[in-house]
Amino acid sequence: MSILRFEDWLQTSQGRYLLDWEQGALDRLVADVFGYYAVQVGLPGVDLLRANRMPCRLSCGGAGRDLRCSEFELPFATASLDLVLLPHVLEFSAHPHRVLREVERVLVPEGSVVISGFNPLSLWGVRKLLARRDAAAPWGGYYRSAMRIRDWLTLLGFEVQANAFGCYAPPLRSPQWLERWRFADRAGARWWPVLGAGYLLHGVKRV
Hints:
Blueprint: H1 3-9, H2 13-30, E1 37-41, E2 56-61, E3 67-68, E4 81-87, H3 89-92, H4 96-106, E5 107-118, H5 123-129, H6 146-155, E6 158-166, H7 175-180, H8 183-191, E7 198-205
């Protein structure tokens, strides 16, 4: 399952629904993360760091805008970055633990990592269970719960500062039906907040 195929999927009605929520949530989150160097790994066609005010913001990855590299071999010095954004990287990487270890290496003390992912404990997670392993995007990725990612971050010495969940409508293809289910976003955020299709985690590297 290619991350590039996933980027193509983001242009569909389902993908735009997810991306609209993630972009809004990330705009609010990264606006308050300060420093000098911020890096987005993956999804070069989407500027998810647009609201961040650091003077140097880079895009890297297998098809990065600024640098091309493996997500678990980042071309940055140890303790040199203030913010690393991983938009759905862990779901499509063959070595998610190595990715997080590499992020821990390149971050300065008190540096931030922000991770977005699909929540397996959601209607979209149920849809993924019904899909084949080689299914089209985004159902061919490996969904891991926010709790599991939080545990991985804790083992690496990160403190999770914040999390957010969103997108409570079923994974419908029709834009009209997705719009009709918008009421679920309001109800879900209030009554079953951890069952959203997508999540964000913000971890801070403690030394």
